[in-house]
């Protein structure tokens, strides 16, 4: 740095000391700067104050010389201390050059930047909140810093910022959520710990209603739940548990429909050999169980997706007993939501339109954006082959049962030779229930379902089932067919019309 250059109102001695390699000399210069700025504050000379800050930022903190940058950082902190409560008027000029130093290759300089910002924030307190996103962005990078001293310094700053947020009632959550949504997908362990700790803090503040924005971060939370660190998983479990408690307390304000697909995704495990994935599935299934019970018929448009996730779990062994029980509760509660009113013809069907609108017609733009984000996140964690369902209707006041989608899922499990016995029984119960509750709408699926149902009834694989389960398995098959036969009259031109009569299905 050219020491002959005019840096007034900084004296040559201050300039020389700021450039010194010794910390003690830079500290002496900082004390002189603090004294100088206090004089300008007393004189209400904002022009000179801004001039001092501008010199310290451009000529020192952003200098090419490392010792000059260190001098600039301590000088900016001294300015903030001298300004006191008035520092809020100059925060942009004070904070931005310090945050730039967070990216410095010198770990000592990053540490000094943490120290400087800590002093600036400590003086300004709540006045820093308009700049919160900038601070959060910088801290999220330092949370994963390889240097332990830098990480320690960032943790002190992080705790200070959390204290300020919790005691403030002016925190702008709307502006913060997009940044949170972006950073929550970090794969770095330390960054995840940083993110989940902030969500935990914000969720505990009474004046901050993070539940309204849960649909935007829920997918990211479930991905963090799969972290290899036991501590991170435990913290994430606590956070999700607190959210679920709040959902139970205020179900009327919860956006169930916007989160249903997220749960469907995470109820399906990509790799069942990994413990974190088991935890994700159990947690998602527990949430799904509560959603069905609390939201009721609101979840019916998502029923095909829910069944895709739930039905395979019914055949789990005792190693996944909790998941199996939660899935069974989901299945039972969802089945009870289907009522005879779902068999009523809709106005659009009477007028000749299809029963289920296309994705483009039924899905709002905001939900489409959300689904794009979810699909991207699935691919990033190996979930690309998992079923993802769009509701049959999204903006109609009356909830529509996605009957075609349900039948497609049930038919798939009947045809899949790897389907477990308890899953096959549940499928038969579902078909029986649908024929009882929605006979008119189920009629059009009968031709496609009947061949496989007959095969299932006489399936010799029943011999492999333990004897104690045989009566139950047979009972479900046998009790299913009489109601079906009573409503099924083959069209004379159909395959069954040519080959069978109703009586031919009844064996002596």
TrEMBL record:
<feature type="region of interest" description="Disordered">
    <location>
        <begin position="333"/>
        <end position="371"/>
    </location>
</feature>
<protein>
    <recommendedName>
        <fullName>Protein VAC14 homolog</fullName>
    </recommendedName>
</protein>
<keyword id="KW-0677">Repeat</keyword>
<keyword id="KW-0256">Endoplasmic reticulum</keyword>
<dbReference type="GO" id="GO:0010008">
    <property type="term" value="C:endosome membrane"/>
</dbReference>
<keyword id="KW-0492">Microsome</keyword>
<dbReference type="InterPro" id="IPR026825">
    <property type="entry name" value="Vac14"/>
</dbReference>
<dbReference type="InterPro" id="IPR011989">
    <property type="entry name" value="ARM-like"/>
</dbReference>
<keyword id="KW-0967">Endosome</keyword>
<feature type="compositionally biased region" description="Basic and acidic residues">
    <location>
        <begin position="358"/>
        <end position="368"/>
    </location>
</feature>
<dbReference type="GO" id="GO:0070772">
    <property type="term" value="C:PAS complex"/>
</dbReference>
<comment type="similarity">
    <text>Belongs to the VAC14 family.</text>
</comment>
<comment type="subunit">
    <text>Forms pentamers. Component of the PI(3,5)P2 regulatory complex/PAS complex, at least composed of PIKFYVE, FIG4 and VAC14. VAC14 nucleates the assembly of the complex and serves as a scaffold by pentamerizing into a star-shaped structure, which can bind a single copy each of PIKFYVE and FIG4 and coordinates their activities. Interacts with NOS1.</text>
</comment>
<keyword id="KW-0472">Membrane</keyword>
<dbReference type="GO" id="GO:0006661">
    <property type="term" value="P:phosphatidylinositol biosynthetic process"/>
</dbReference>
<comment type="function">
    <text>Scaffold protein component of the PI(3,5)P2 regulatory complex which regulates both the synthesis and turnover of phosphatidylinositol 3,5-bisphosphate (PtdIns(3,5)P2). Pentamerizes into a star-shaped structure and nucleates the assembly of the complex. The pentamer binds a single copy each of PIKFYVE and FIG4 and coordinates both PIKfyve kinase activity and FIG4 phosphatase activity, being required to maintain normal levels of phosphatidylinositol 3-phosphate (PtdIns(3)P) and phosphatidylinositol 5-phosphate (PtdIns(5)P).</text>
</comment>
<feature type="compositionally biased region" description="Acidic residues">
    <location>
        <begin position="340"/>
        <end position="349"/>
    </location>
</feature>
<dbReference type="InterPro" id="IPR016024">
    <property type="entry name" value="ARM-type_fold"/>
</dbReference>
<dbReference type="Pfam" id="PF12755">
    <property type="entry name" value="Vac14_Fab1_bd"/>
</dbReference>
């Amino acid at each position: 740095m050219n020491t002959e250059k005019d840096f007034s109102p900084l004296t040559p001695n201050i300039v020389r000391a700021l450039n010194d390699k010794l910390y003690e000399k830079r500290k002496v210069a900082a004390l002189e700067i603090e004294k100088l700025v206090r004089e300008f504050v007393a004189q209400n000379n904002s022009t000179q104050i801004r001039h001092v800050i501008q010199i310290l930022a451009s000529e020192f903190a952003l200098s090419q010389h490392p010792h000059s940058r260190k001098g600039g950082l301590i000088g900016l902190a001294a300015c903030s201390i001298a300004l006191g409560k008035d520092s809020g008027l100059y925060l942009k000029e004070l904070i931005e050059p310090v945050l730039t130093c967070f990216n410095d290759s010198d770990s000592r300089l990053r540490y000094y930047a943490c120290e400087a910002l800590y002093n600036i924030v400590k003086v300004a307190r709540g006045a820093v909140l308009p700049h919160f996103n900038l601070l959060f962005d910088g801290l999220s990078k330092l949370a994963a810093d390889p240097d332990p001293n830098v990480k320690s310094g960032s943790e002190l700053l992080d705790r200070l910022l959390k204290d300020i947020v919790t005691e403030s009632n002016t925190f702008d959550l709307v502006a913060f959520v997009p940044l949170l949504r972006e950073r929550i997908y970090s794969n770095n362990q330390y960054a995840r710990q940083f993110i989940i700790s902030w969500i935990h803090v914000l969720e505990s503040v009474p004046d901050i209603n993070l539940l309204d924005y849960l649909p935007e971060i829920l997918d990211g939370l479930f991905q963090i739940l799969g972290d290899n660190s036991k501590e991170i998983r435990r913290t994430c479990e606590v956070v999700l548990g607190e959210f679920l408690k709040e959902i139970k307390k205020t179900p009327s304000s919860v956006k169930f429909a916007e989160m249903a697909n997220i749960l469907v995704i995470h109820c399906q495990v990509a790799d069942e050999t990994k413990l974190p994935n088991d935890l994700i599935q159990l947690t998602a299934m527990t949430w799904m169980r509560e959603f069905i019970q609390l939201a009721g018929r609101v979840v019916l448009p998502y029923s095909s997706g829910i069944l895709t996730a739930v039905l395979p779990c019914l055949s789990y062994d005792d190693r996944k007993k909790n998941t199996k029980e939660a899935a069974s509760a989901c299945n039972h509660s969802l089945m009870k939501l289907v009522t005879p009113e779902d068999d009523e013809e809709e106005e659009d069907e009477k007028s000749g339109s299809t029963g289920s609108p296309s994705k483009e017609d039924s899905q709002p733009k905001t939900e489409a954006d959300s689904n794009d984000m979810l699909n991207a996140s699935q691919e990033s964690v190996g979930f690309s082959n998992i079923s993802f369902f769009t509701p049959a209707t999204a903006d109609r006041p009356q909830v529509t049962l996605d009957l075609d989608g349900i039948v497609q899922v049930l038919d798939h499990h009947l045809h899949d030779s790897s389907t477990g016995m308890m899953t096959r029984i549940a499928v038969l119960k579902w078909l029986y229930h649908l024929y009882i509750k929605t006979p008119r709408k189920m009629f059009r699926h009968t031709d496609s379902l009947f061949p496989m149902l007959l095969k299932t009834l006489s399936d010799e694989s029943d011999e492999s089932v333990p004897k104690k389960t045989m009566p139950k398995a047979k009972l479900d098959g046998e009790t299913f067919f009489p109601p079906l036969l009573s409503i099924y009259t083959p069209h004379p031109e159909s395959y069954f019309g040519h080959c069978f009569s109703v009586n031919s299905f009844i064996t002596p």
